[in-house]
Predict the structure of BLUF domain-containing protein.
Amino acid sequence: MISLVCVSQPTCWTRSRKETLDDIQAVSQARNSALNVTGVLIATTTHFAHVLEGPKDAVESVLTSIMSDPRHCRVNVVRRTPIFRRRFPVWRLARMDRGRFASFALAGTLKRLHTAPDRETLHHFDQLTDALARSYHTTLT
């Protein structure tokens, strides 16, 4: 099993931004469910970040789909690593795109991941996505 982080730039917002993200999420959830892939899509106005987890071939298949999706450009894989357990075990594709957190806390991080990823920026991104996963698990209990 692997975890893959990729960052891209949106090429356009077909219809409205919300409808575009709804479309991406709906198609991705169906595909990811069939492939046993889990993860999260984080969207700011200038970048998309995907964290994908699952069998290597399945995750690579999803990546190929993202790279051929005309709504994404300049797809940059910033990390591909083996994992023993998932950080997002129940999310076929969760989405975070609203509020100040996505706009403020993540915009700079996603820009750095996209243009010049480094260890510190990846660590910061991991901390933010871990907090996101914990907040989800806390709301379930």
Remarks:
- The radius of gyration is 14 Å.
